[in-house]
From TrEMBL:
This is Alpha-1,4 glucan phosphorylase. The keyword Glycosyltransferase applies. Belongs to the glycogen phosphorylase family. Keywords: Allosteric enzyme, Carbohydrate metabolism, Glycogen metabolism, Glycosyltransferase, Pyridoxal phosphate, Transferase. InterPro entries: Glycg_phsphrylas, Glyco_trans_35, Pyridoxal_P_attach_site. The gene is GPH1. Its EC number is 2.4.1.1. It catalyses: [(1->4)-alpha-D-glucosyl](n) + phosphate = [(1->4)-alpha-D-glucosyl](n-1) + alpha-D-glucose 1-phosphate.
Length: 864
């Protein structure tokens, strides 16, 4: 290591594995500084990528014997997974190096996607698929005495996210790479991802998810990249020695280091490999050195742990704001490290600050990274000495903000005192931003005090709060919602007054999407192969509108037969998983009705389970002889995690499990109805679940689900959906046609009034729902006290999620499904039409819209 440390030494630069971060002029300079002898050796021994099974086997064995220090005699599946992953990682790193060199040489504008969550799932299968080497790997692994599917199954999920928002970020980095956009993701490397869920006596029990237990072959630790991040302290005024002017300086009171870990993100059908950089916190070495020497080991160690706690664990809340100081610390830690990194890279280009927005676009995934706006302003004004207005112009041209919810309980509002204590200079800057902004607003709307109050970053409540969404709108040049309905809603609800101030042009829509590589090719290889066989290539995986062409085979009975058989295979695969996880045996020939997503009152798993109870009661009330004719045999499958502190959501899980217990053990019902709760829903389980639905449920109270993405995953895999007129369901209906979807329930525009009526005591429980409630009250599913709160929230507490209003309509839609499913052939036709028309929902399309309408970036590929 020693010779590599001298900063100015050209040899040190030479030994860096890539040219990342150097300007073309610098590269020339570096090149000339390398001795000819060395340059020749480097060329002679250039690392070769493996290209044949022989190459891979050799590399694999090399990794087993050296990287893992094992041998043929103690190489188990875990070792095989590590060795195979390391071999593929080697290839990815070579591509990564080339990609980063190319982007730097071209001085391409980069998009930095800031997300506090990246729900990546497994990497191995995806990397093999994107590199087009899965078959090759299968051969090699088989030669070496392993089964590829077993090896794939060893990998723990990278569960660094809660649900849809985190999975969206994961799909987006896949598409950025596939579409050759220069883009980096920035996030946190949590030691503990989303908790793993066990079901004990029907209750959710959380266990920590220590996903790094066996190390992680997919990450490249960049231990040399250590960025100091300050917290607390105070602000002083100093005289700038250069200008003689007074300026503000933040004197931090606590410092931690951010260490970079890189995850290469391969694209499909391209050698482009982008980077996901995740930060890990660690203590500074000098911190409390004195205490240590004075013998106060305890408190010196406590400080170490305090630093490490920042990236210890992901907050397990989905669509819910909880004002914890450690969470704010996570946010600033991540934002400060990322911006430092971005600015450092920009400074290497030696361009003027005014050109910053020509090289850098930053997207804020929800309000979690909104501090980046303030941090960039601080860097430009306090550290780089720019004038306030010039700096603010650069800031607003750089940022875009994606809103993910209109629900009040999910909007971030930091108590002013907590915020000012942790980030005193940032609070001052927020005041200044707000002052400037409100001045112009007051000038434009001199009479409208209420409007000024609404758009202020500071909520004048007691105690006062900082509204992060307002700050994000003010500091960005574009604000987008994630589905058409949602993007319209934000303009008429939470950002209504901002539309008056900025005009409607600032607000736009980019409907979410999913990557067809993971959610079709990886999750459903059989269906993918069938489509390839008809279209003659797999180009539809990068140009998804080509899928439209399979619609013309809908009249081909052979094709429909193959299609139906694949669905059956996928249902068999899920039945096997269900047996393994729950012990429940389900018949794959019966209708699979699936609802898997985070458990949340707004997503209305209550509606589903009440509907299941209704069905159960109907079966019981029908004479045995008439049942077969009247009821479609059905398997109801639910799954999802509840936030550990979310009481109502946990009660819903308990109710589902208790109902499942009663129904599954009722001999009288037999195969007509089975109910399953799949424990520990995550990305790798979703890959098995999504291809196996006949029907999936997306039944949120209208206006509450911003987009939804699992709706897209299910339909892409040939499942139909039952859903409310909410989020992306609306656009799915437009694309696949009304005949292919089962819509029900009240519309978003009616929700407000219905809620007001409930508040006035007007509540109408339909007879069907009353019957369901009576059964629960009777104790059929265990002591009523367990579920009292669930029922009373509908009956007596305003039914905020409109369960009573939508129940009958839901049952009707379910009954239509029963009828339609009887005509299997017709159902298969609908299934084909669905898949054929899902091209719009590729995350490639979403990323292209962001690139063109918000980021102003261009693809960069090796071919000029
Ligand atoms: C896609 C996905 C989600 C999002 O599901 P929604 O139904 O859109 O809320 C959540 N969790 C996992 C594991 C997913 O793959």
């Amino acid at each position: 290591m020693s010779g590599f440390q001298t900063p100015a030494s050209p040899r040190r630069r030479f030994h860096k594995r890539s040219m990342t971060g150097f300007t073309p002029t610098e590269i020339k300079a570096i090149d000339q500084s390398i001795p000819i002898k060395a340059r020749e050796a480097w060329t002679r021994y250039a690392v070769k990528e493996f290209a044949t099974p022989d190459d891979l086997e050799s590399l694999f064995i090399n990794h087993v014997e050296t990287t893992l220090a094992r041998s043929m005699y103690n190489c188990d599946n875990l070792a095989a997974y590590s060795a195979l992953s390391s071999s593929i990682r080697d290839k990815l790193i070579l591509h990564w190096n080339k990609t980063q060199q190319l982007h730097t040489l071209r001085e391409a504008k980069r998009i930095y996607y800031l997300s506090l969550e990246f729900l990546m799932g497994r990497a191995l299968d995806n990397a093999m698929i994107n590199l087009g080497i899965k078959e090759l790997c299968g051969k090699s692994v088989d030669e070496l005495g392993f089964n590829l599917e077993d090896v794939i199954d060893i990998e723990p999920d990278a569960g660094l996210g809660n649900g849809g928002l985190g999975r969206l970020a994961a799909c987006f980095v896949d598409s950025l790479s596939t579409c050759n956009y220069p883009g980096w993701g920035y996030g946190l490397r949590y030691n503990y991802g989303i908790f793993s869920q066990k079901i004990v006596d029907g209750y959710q029990v959380e266990a920590p998810d220590y996903w790094l237990k066996y190390g992680n072959p997919w990450e490249i630790p960049r231990l040399e990249i250590q960025i100091p991040v300050d917290f607390y302290g105070y602000v002083t005024t100093v005289t700038d020695p250069k200008t003689g002017k007074a300026k503000k300086q933040w004197q931090g009171g606590e410092q931690v280091l951010a260490v970079a870990y890189d995850f290469p993100v391969p694209g499909y059908h391209t050698t482009n490999v982008n980077n996901l950089r995740l930060w890990s916190s660690k203590p500074t070495s000098e911190f409390d050195f004195q205490k240590f020497n004075e013998g106060e080991y305890d408190s010196s160690v406590q400080q170490q742990q305090r630093a490490e706690s920042i990236t210890a664990v992901l907050y397990p809340n989905d669509n819910f704001y909880q004002g914890k100081e450690l969470r704010l610390k996570q946010q600033y830690f991540w934002v400060a490290a990322s911006l430092h990194d971005i600015v450092r890279r920009f400074l290497k280009t030696k361009k003027k600050w005014s050109e910053f927005p020509d090289l850098v676009a930053i997207q804020l995934n929800d309000t979690h990274p909104t501090l980046a706006i303030v941090e960039l302003q601080r860097i430009l004004v306090d550290l780089e000495g720019l004038e306030w207005d010039d700096a603010w112009d650069i800031v607003t041209r750089t940022f875009g903000y994606t809103n993910h919810t209109v629900m009040q309980e999910a909007l971030e509002k930091w108590p002013l005192e907590l915020f000012g204590n942790l980030l005193p200079r940032h609070l001052e800057i927020i005041y200044l931003i707000n002052m400037d902004f409100l001045k112009t607003v007051s000038k434009k709307f001199p009479q409208d005090r209420e409007l000024v109050r609404n758009v202020s970053i500071i909520e004048e409540s007691d105690p006062k709060n900082i509204r992060m969404a307002n700050l994000a709108v003010i500091g960005s040049h574009k604000v987008n919602g994630v589905a058409e309905l949602h993007s319209e809603l934000i303009k008429t609800t939470i950002f209504k007054d901002f539309v008056k101030v900025f005009g409607p042009e600032k607000f736009t829509n980019v409907t979410n999407g999913i990557t067809p590589r993971r959610w079709l090719k990886q999750a459903n290889p059989e269906l993918t192969d069938l489509i390839v066989s008809k279209l003659g290539s797999d180009l539809f995986l990068v140009d998804t509108v080509r899928m439209k062409q399979i619609e013309k085979f809908v009249g081909d009975p052979e094709f429909r037969k193959s299609w139906a058989l694949i669905k059956l295979h996928n249902k068999e695969r899920l039945a096997k998983l269900i047996k393994k996880l729950t012990g429940v045996v389900v018949n794959p020939h019966n209708l699979f009705d699936i609802q898997v997503k985070r458990i949340h009152e707004y997503k209305r798993q209550q509606l589903n389970i009440f509907g299941i109870i209704w069905r159960y009661l109907q079966i019981k009330a029908t004479p045995a002889g008439e049942r077969a004719k009247k009821f479609m045999p059905k398997v109801s499958i639910l799954g999802g995690k509840a936030a550990p502190g979310y009481y109502a959501a946990k009660k819903i899980i308990k109710l589902i499990n208790s109902v499942a217990d009663v129904i599954n053990n009722d001999k009288d019902v037999g195969d007509l109805l089975k109910v399953v709760f799949v424990p520990d829903y995550n990305v790798s389980k979703a890959e098995v679940i999504c291809p196996a639905s006949d029907i999936s449920e997306h039944i949120s109270t209208a206006g509450t689900e911003a987009s939804g993405t699992s709706n897209m995953k299910f339909v892409l895999n040939g499942g139909l959906i039952i859903g409310t007129v909410d989020g992306a369901n609306v656009e799915i209906t437009r694309e696949v046609g009304e005949d292919q979807i089962f819509l029900f329930g009240n519309l978003a525009e009616d929700v407000e009034e219905l809620r007001q009526d409930h508040q006035m005591g007007k509540i109408d429980i339909p007879d069907s729902l009353a019957l369901v409630f009576e059964e629960i009250e009777k104790g059929t599913f265990g002591p009523y006290d367990e579920y009292r709160s669930l029922i009373e929230s509908v009956k007596y507490n305003g039914d905020f999620y409109l369960v009573s209003d939508d129940f009958e309509s839901y049952l009707e839609a379910q009954s239509t499904i029963d009828k339609e499913f009887k005509d299997q052939d017709n159902w298969v036709r609908k299934s084909i039409i669905c898949v054929a028309n899902m091209g719009f929902f590729s995350s490639d399309r979403a990323i292209q819209e962001y690139a063109e309408n918000i980021w102003n970036i261009e693809p960069v590929s090796e071919q000029v």
